[in-house]
Amino acid sequence: MTSANAFPTLQKYLPITGDINLKTPIAYKATRGAARVVDALQMALAEVYINGLEIPDSVFRSMIHTSMPILFKHSPGLLAPYDWVLEESSGIAESSRELMKVQYDRPQAMLNRMLGDWDVIYPKYSTGFWQNGAANLEEAQRHMIDQVIERLGITDGDHILDFGCGWGCVPNYILSKFPNVRFTGLNLSHEQCEYMRHKMQDPNSYLSSGRFTLYEGDLNEAQFDEKFDKILSIGVFCHVGNLTNAFQKLASLLRSGGKVFIHIITVRIPNHMSSGFTHKYIFPHGRYWNYDAVPHHNRDLKTIDRWYMNGTNYHKTLTDWLERFDANQESIQHLEYGMDYAKFRRLWRFYLLLLGTIFATCDGEYNGNGQYLMVHA
Ligand SMILES: C[S@@+](CC[C@H](N)C(=O)[O-])C[C@H]1O[C@@H](n2cnc3c(N)ncnc32)[C@H](O)[C@@H]1O
User: Is 126 in the pocket of ligand 1 (CB under 6 A)?
Assistant: First the structure.
């Protein structure tokens, strides 16, 4: 046996390096311990930054560009700080109410300015698609939704469920293109639902066309009287801890012959990933599924096609959001954040900088978006 062939066998016994799923119990335990150390270091950096240590963005970015490729390529197991990241949770989504408080129901004037709010493209909290030469964020978001329309095969007359519909951007844009499509949107965020209710009264909005129905509620409990021709879910599955249960629910809402399209943040490493910082401050129980996780869960839905969207798209989107956040300081600093604004500003900058930079590492080939087209199994 050559030494190259021996390595996969050897890494089973070695902590820290290689695929955590292959490790012996001792090497596994040691790797879990090392993951907690890596996480504690990241938390320490986050907390000194939040508490006032101003690190120049260029220094911050070069630290991430130096460390993340090593972790992605050689020690992916260290990117899963908690056991729950590696396993499925019991319900569908976890900590949903807390998530709304720390993330989605934050002052809307801040989020809307950061995400951008245009005539047809409402705030959209998921990546734009830049690779087709989009000149700005609005165009990148249009290109991204155009891609969803094509990949999901939307046709006029479809009744579509948007599972986690944000501010109604995707429904509004698709309704503007198809005069006979109907949409149902589901969202737990009260503030985002208020935005859509307002648009449903606005004659200039396609959400007021009578073809949009809104349900404010938790996807864990969602039930509808009718089944849908198509279901789409964009940027929501980082809040889903159990793919088996989620796909069972989606399958039960899909009419026979219908299609499901999900777009998620994904990592092309052997295990799923999370971080103590995002869990504590940004997305409680948020996780990034590995690229193979969705097709692996094929009991009620099966994946018939999938695409990897390079992480540079999300890098550009998050960098744009950070610039908008910075540029709007004057108008957003007096809003209510439940903490001193200077601290909130540093917390939010750390989030946008950290995620935005990680997506750019390894030329976007390890951390990007996964898109999956599914039908009944
Ligand atoms: C990252 S945003 C994406 C929103 C939208 N799909 C888009 O692309 O702009 C995730 C959305 O999922 C919603 N969400 C998260 N957890 C939920 C839950 N348990 N039940 C219902 N909606 C949820 C959030 O309120 C938010 O609107």
Answer: yes
Atom of ligand 1 nearest to the CA of 219: 20
Model-wide pTM > 0.85: yes
CATH code at 90-271+284-376: 3.40.50.150
Task: Note the pLDDT of residue 149.
Answer: 98
Closest residue by Cα to atom 4, ligand 1, is 166
pLDDT of residue 54: 83
| Structure token digits, residue 209 | 């066309």
* Site to substitute for ligand 1 among 94, 125, 240, most atoms within 8 A of C-beta: 125
Ligand 1 within 6 A of CB of 145: no
193 lines ligand 1 (CB under 6 A): no
- Dump pLDDT digits (tens) for 288-329: 999 999 999 999 999 999 999 999 999 999 999 999 999 999
**Dihedral of alpha carbons 138, 139, 142, 143, sign:** negative
CA–CA dist 90, 80 (Å, integer): 18
pLDDT surpassing 80 at residue 3: no
Q: Is the CB of 103 under 6 A from ligand 1?
A: no
For ligand 1, atom 13: residue with the closest CA: 164
**Over the stretch 213-271, which tens digit does the pLDDT of each residue have?**
999 999 999 999 999 999 999 999 999 999 999 999 999 999 999 999 999 999 999 99
CB 125 near ligand 1, within 6 Å? yes
